[in-house]
């Protein structure tokens, strides 16, 4: 055994190093495809901003953006990152090349020698003041692109670019602010940092994911063992009917029924939300009860369709091992049936079940959109849906990054558990 482990560990090490190295190109491929889709999909944040400006100018939807000057339109496009072609914009989003931040355009009429500008930039979160997250600097700019009228240190981050054919000057800051710098961007819909919005929803997803997984394993493994031992009995047939009926009921349908009859009409449970409105005022014990009280119905809906797969996987694997030669040999040598099941057959039967533990990592991005909508749970599923519905592309890209990373780590962890539980597996 020592020799086999000595030979196996370097092979596994090399395999998992390659798997981790593949995360980067997979992430680049996935984000590049979605980033390209966001560039060509109509009805994005730029069009919405143009329509809003048109409505404020009372010009109607047919002349979207007509109330804006060309410079204002270009400034709006720059704000949403549509001022660059695909590859430069994508590389800036990654943080490989500097992004052109806080860009504005100044138009010069004939004979005009300077123009006043307000240089406005978003401060780092550590420097935010109450009700003020921006720093402004008053300056003047000349047609040659020279900035004046302010302290040199304040003007140092700013760059200018002269567009002679349009008789205007671009003013912007160059900053490496992308994925590689840990910046997922700012939501165009909520004007909040994407990373903050993801972290805000994460505890809810973790809670429901962990609770669902824990309850599934605690119920399905013993139930699968019981069904294997009682194969073709009343117990086996009755439980099979129950779990497959549950498997055939969509979770959102059951959620609608439960929230109407048990919550709205009977009043036994809250109709929605993760916690009550007075949660902060409760004692610790009351807070625990409040969370469990709100979570009971959603957990039932999350788990209703998940029992069948894990239960039948446990049952079928245990039945296969009970029919194996090594179990019959153990019984022939005097081992009781209980010992043959719990000591010999059960250990090997748990190997396929253990491999599913690797996907528990996906609870960080798990969530059922319809269940969250019905129970008014601000989880990850609802956040993903709203980001697509609102064409909030920074939020879409940020959620995609988190999902790809978490799912790939979960797959690698699943492979590791396969090798750990089954000594016959050798990754090469």
UniProtKB/TrEMBL annotation:
SUPFAM superfamilies: MetI-like (SSF161098)
TM segment ranges: 20-40, 206-229, 241-264, 291-313, 349-375, 395-420
Domain ABC transmembrane type-1: 202-414
Localization of this protein: Cell membrane
Keywords for this protein: Cell membrane, Membrane, Transmembrane, Transmembrane helix, Transport
Superkingdom of origin organism: Bacteria
Topology of the protein relative to the lipid bilayer: Multi-pass membrane protein
Short name of one Pfam family: BPD_transp_1
Record family assignment: Belongs to the binding-protein-dependent transport system permease family.
Protein name listed in UniProt: ABC transmembrane type-1 domain-containing protein
């Amino acid at each position: 055994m020592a020799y086999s482990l000595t030979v196996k560990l370097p092979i596994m090490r090399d395999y998992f190093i390659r798997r981790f190295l593949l995360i980067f190109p997979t992430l680049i491929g996935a984000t590049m495809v979605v980033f390209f889709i966001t560039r060509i999909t109509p009805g994005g944040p730029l069009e919405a901003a143009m329509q809003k400006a048109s409505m404020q100018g009372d010009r109607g939807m047919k002349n979207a953006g007509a109330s804006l000057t060309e410079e204002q339109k270009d400034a709006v496009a720059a704000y949403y990152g549509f001022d660059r072609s695909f590859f430069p914009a994508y590389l800036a989003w990654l943080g490989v090349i500097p992004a052109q931040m806080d860009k504005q355009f100044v138009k010069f009429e004939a004979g005009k020698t300077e123009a006043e500008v307000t240089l406005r930039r978003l401060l780092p979160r550590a420097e935010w003041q109450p009700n003020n997250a921006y720093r402004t600097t008053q300056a003047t700019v000349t047609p040659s692109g020279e900035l004046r009228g302010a302290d040199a240190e304040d003007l140092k981050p700013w760059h200018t670019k002269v567009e002679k054919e349009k008789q205007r000057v671009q003013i912007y800051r160059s900053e490496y602010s992308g994925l590689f710098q840990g910046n997922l961007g700012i939501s165009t819909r909520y004007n909040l940092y994407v990373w903050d919005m993801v972290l805000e929803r994460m505890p809810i997803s973790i809670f429901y994911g962990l609770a669902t997984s824990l309850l599934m394993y605690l119920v399905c493994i013993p139930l699968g063992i019981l069904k294997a031992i009682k194969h073709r009995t009343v117990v086996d047939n009755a439980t099979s009917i129950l779990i497959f009926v549950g498997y055939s009921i969509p979770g959102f349908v059951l959620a609608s029924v439960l929230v109407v009859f048990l919550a709205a009409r009977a009043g036994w449970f809250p109709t929605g939300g993760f916690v009550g409105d007075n949660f902060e005022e409760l004692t610790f014990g009351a807070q625990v009860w409040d969370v469990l009280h709100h979570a009971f119905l959603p957990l039932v809906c999350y788990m209703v369709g998940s029992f069948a797969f894990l239960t039948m996987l446990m049952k079928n694997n245990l039945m296969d091992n009970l029919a194996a030669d090594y179990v019959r040999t153990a019984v022939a040598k005097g081992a009781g049936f209980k010992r043959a099941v719990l000591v010999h057959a059960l250990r090997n039967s748990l190997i396929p079940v253990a491999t599913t533990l690797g996907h528990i990592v996906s609870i960080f991005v798990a969530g059922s959109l319809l269940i969250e909508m019905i129970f008014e749970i601000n989880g990850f599923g609802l956040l993903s849906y709203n980001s697509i519905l609102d064409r909030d592309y920074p939020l879409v890209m940020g959620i995609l990054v988190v999902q790809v990373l978490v799912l790939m780590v979960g797959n690698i962890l699943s492979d590791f558990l396969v090798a750990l539980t089954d000594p016959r597996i050798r990754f090469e």
